[in-house]
Write a structure and sequence with these properties.
- The chain has about 80 residues and is mostly helical.
- It has one domain.
- The protein is built from three helices and no strands.
């Protein structure tokens, strides 16, 4: 199961817990590209900490693929322009 799905299930099952709030804050910070206090991760139990680390890994991979898609789209646009020299 991927980390995003695991985090969603965890948050739904424990919405009022500090751990769920920390995972939610991590996701919001990643999505908005805002600051997140990394020391909050060390307050998590090991299982939830692992979910948080997996979220970071998956988010990094997704950003890579999003960047690759943007480059591909730009390359397609440029390839249709007339050449100038």
């Amino acid at each position: 199961m991927n980390a995003i799905k695991s985090a969603r299930k965890f948050i739904v099952a424990n919405p009022a817990s500090n751990s769920a709030r920390t995972l939610a804050q991590l996701v919001l910070a990643l999505e908005s590209e805002s600051n997140f206090d990394v020391t909050e991760l060390y307050k998590l139990d090991l299982e939830t900490f692992d979910i948080a680390i997996d979220i970071l890994k998956e988010w990094r991979i997704d950003r890579y693929y999003a960047g690759k898609a943007k480059l591909f789209d730009l390359s397609l646009q440029v390839s249709t322009l007339p050449a100038t020299e």
